[in-house]
Amino acid sequence: MPPKNRTSAAAGEIGVLLVNLGTPDAATPAAVRRYLAEFLSDPRVVEIPAIAWKPILHGVILRTRPAKSAHAYRQVWTDKGSPLAAITAAQAAGLQALLGTRAKVGWAMRYGNPAIPARLQAMKDAGCDRILVAPLYPQYSGATTASVMDRLGEALRAMRWQPAIRTLPPYFGDAAYIGALEDDLVRQIAALDFVPEVLLLSYHGMPQRTADLGDPYHWHCRETSRLLTERLNLRVPGLRIETSFQSRFGRAKWLEPSTEDVLAAEAKAGTTRIAVAAPGFSADCVETLEELAIRGREVFEEAGGREMAVLSCLNDGASGMEMLQALVNRELSGW
């Protein structure tokens, strides 16, 4: 006789869970405060002892920053909500169409909603006993990829009946990724109504201390830029390509050069036409749509620049979806 607690749950399906960074539920100070409280409480993100950091976070940052950040989110909020959430959902839907019945595709956010534990459980309940978790961070960092792994481990720890798990490795130098960036950027540059003198590749910044401690993120970004530059030099001759790091926060030294400093310096040096791309972001978000396209443009123009274009991320466009399909199919091999 079978044991009384035997279940008849569905099984035998394969799942793919796309994971991105996260977003507040609304462009309001209250929603942003909840989001920042979770994000900035992650010891992977802020590597300061909690006894020193918590009074600063709760006594200063969460009292002052939410209103400013909410204003930035309102600048880019859409009728579908957060651009990052809407695009990630579209990527999941697009990948589902490409994979067909081979796998069930879902998406989650490391911070905010939909949360990784809830989506992992939902996929398990839908019969997925093998799940590929795919962090959409091309370049590895402890603050991004490793934090997803931490949250995944917490979710698995709470599950009595765990699915088998695979994870997508960083793909900063993968031929499919570099090729997708090349094709997409060449297409966008050709569609501009001006010819840029410079293409600035802007990556999210990290404290310099992370690199000093052995985090490979800085090298991964530089390697992406090197490989992409080799390709673009053949496709767009005469275009000078530079690399920078955006989104500095606090007083600590961050990876350099900073994007704002480069934009100002280029304009002051006589560059009048510039294009900016953010290859480290898999989907457009407040960092690209507000920080680069609005505030970055203001910096460039105030320093004397005339024309600036912020190119779209791969998002759910054809090049990006073909890349994602190739990466996922490779990781699903044998399943």
Care to describe what's here?
- The chain has 335 residues and is of the alpha/beta class.
- It has 2 domains: 17-171, Rossmann fold; 175-310, Rossmann fold (3-Layer(aba) Sandwich), CATH 3.40.50.
- It is built from 11 helices and 8 strands.
- The chain has a 4-stranded parallel sheet, sandwiched between helices. A 4-stranded parallel sheet has the order 6-5-7-8, sandwiched between helices.
- It starts with 12 loop residues before the first strand and ends with a helix.
- The model has no long low-confidence stretch (mean pLDDT 96).
Descriptive keywords:
335 residues; alpha/beta; Rossmann fold; 2 domains; four-stranded parallel sheet
In short:
With 335 residues, the protein is an alpha/beta fold. It has helices at 29-39, 50-76, 83-99, 116-125, 145-157, 175-190, 208-212, 217-235, 259-268, 286-302, 318-331; strands at 13-23, 104-112, 128-135, 164-167, 198-204, 240-246, 273-277, 307-310.
Determine the mean pLDDT.
Answer: 96
Radius of gyration over C-alpha positions, nearest whole angstrom: 21 Å
Any idea what the shape is?
Answer: globular
> Would you state the CATH class of the largest domain?
Alpha Beta
CATH topology of the largest domain: Rossmann fold
Secondary-structure blueprint:
Layout: E1 13-23, H1 29-39, H2 50-76, H3 83-99, E2 104-112, H4 116-125, E3 128-135, H5 145-157, E4 164-167, H6 175-190, E5 198-204, H7 208-212, H8 217-235, E6 240-246, H9 259-268, E7 273-277, H10 286-302, E8 307-310, H11 318-331
Parallel strand pairs: 1-2, 1-3, 3-4, 5-6, 5-7, 7-8
Helix pairs in contact: 1-2, 2-10, 3-11, 4-5, 6-8, 6-11, 9-10
